[in-house]
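Retry 2 of 3 after timeout on previous attempt. Resubmitting structure tokens to design endpoint.
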């Protein structure tokens, strides 16, 4: 549904060039909720604004629902009309709502339809349908200043849906909301995704957003996508940064000659007593140093950091047992036994 190839965006800032996007290749399948994660300055907002051509890319292509938007940009009046038509099938939800304070809730939702030349009666009917869809049927005549943050964002979502888009873009839509309101907005986006068959592209810096609502995700750093895939694929990829961020675990070896591994559970294995089976089968003591578990897409997924007695070479068979149960096992990257203050003093 959304494909970018070699997408680059360079800004001029105080006489120098700043590269916000550096050859981004993105693939979002039809009907999925796709999250793009990254810290501030990673290029997330530039990416989403290039997807609907609010920002024109410096180079590369953007294809949405089979239409190459970049091919239409700046190529005459007819191409401009085709670009506007294509963009009308893409809804956009903003972090700070962007509602017009002088217009009622209903009038705010009608605005894009007004721009498209839809007759007044049809605009009103569509706006009221959308207000009912987002749970604000009783707020049609209210003004934005009379609404809570969550209600304003619901109006923003309804407005984004006015033109019956096939794609919904969300630029940090929940970052200005409290946790409870965030959960309700994410649930609304998931419900709309399922009910309307919407493809949703989310920009966020919050891992919980991905765990709550996303089917797939990508991690951006310095204008590039460094990881991308379904959440299940990422969790099954050894060394995945996203997997470690989604389910962080910590804990250090309690002594020398210890093996510390991170074990990822998903699907049926998340509910099986695999660790206790391992302890009984090989008659070994296992220490659980840390664990993180949550529900993603209706399935329990989690990671656990465990310590086995002996060096890794001594634990090849127990580790193999875990892998035979369908678990992903990798050596914990930061779990070496910490030195005691006395040992550190002696080393100095």
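Retry 2 succeeded. Sequence:
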């Amino acid at each position: 549904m959304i494909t970018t190839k070699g997408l680059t965006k360079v800004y001029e800032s105080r006489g120098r060039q700043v590269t916000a996007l550096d050859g981004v290749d993105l693939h979002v399948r039809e009907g999925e909720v796709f999250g793009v994660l990254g810290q501030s300055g990673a290029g997330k907002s530039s990416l989403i604004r290039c997807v609907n051509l609010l920002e024109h890319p410096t180079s590369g292509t953007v294809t949405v629902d089979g239409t190459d938007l970049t091919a239409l940009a700046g190529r005459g009046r007819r191409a401009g009309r085709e670009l506007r038509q294509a963009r009308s099938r893409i809804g956009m939800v903003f972090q700070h709502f962007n509602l017009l304070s002088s217009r009622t809730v209903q009038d705010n939702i009608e605005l894009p339809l007004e721009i498209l030349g839809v007759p007044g009666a049809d605009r009103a009917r569509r706006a009221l349908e959308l207000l009912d869809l987002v749970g604000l049927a009783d707020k049609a005549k209210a003004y934005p200043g009379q609404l809570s943050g969550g209600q304003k964002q619901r109006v923003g979502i309804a407005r984004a849906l006015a033109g019956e888009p096939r794609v919904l873009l969300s630029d940090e839509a929940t970052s200005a909301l409290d946790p409870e309101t965030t959960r309700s907005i994410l649930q609304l986006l998931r419900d709309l995704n399922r009910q309307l068959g919407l493809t949703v592209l989310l920009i966020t810096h919050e891992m919980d957003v991905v765990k709550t609502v996303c089917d797939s995700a990508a991690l951006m750093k310095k204008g590039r996508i460094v990881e991308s895939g379904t959440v299940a694929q990422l969790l099954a990829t050894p060394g995945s940064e996203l997997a470690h961020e989604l389910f962080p675990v910590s804990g250090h070896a309690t002594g020398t000659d210890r093996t510390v591994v991170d074990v990822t559970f998903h699907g049926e294995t998340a509910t099986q007593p695999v660790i206790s089976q391992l302890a009984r089968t090989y008659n070994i003591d296992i220490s659980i140093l840390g664990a993180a578990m949550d529900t993603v897409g209706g399935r329990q997924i989690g990671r656990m950091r465990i310590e086995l007695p002996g060096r890794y070479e001594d634990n090849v068979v127990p580790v193999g047992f875990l892998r035979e149960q369908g678990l992903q096992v990798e050596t914990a990257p930061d779990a070496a036994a910490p030195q005691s203050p006395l040992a550190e003093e002696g080393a100095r």
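Attempt log closed. The CA atoms of residues 260 and 307 lie 4 Å apart.
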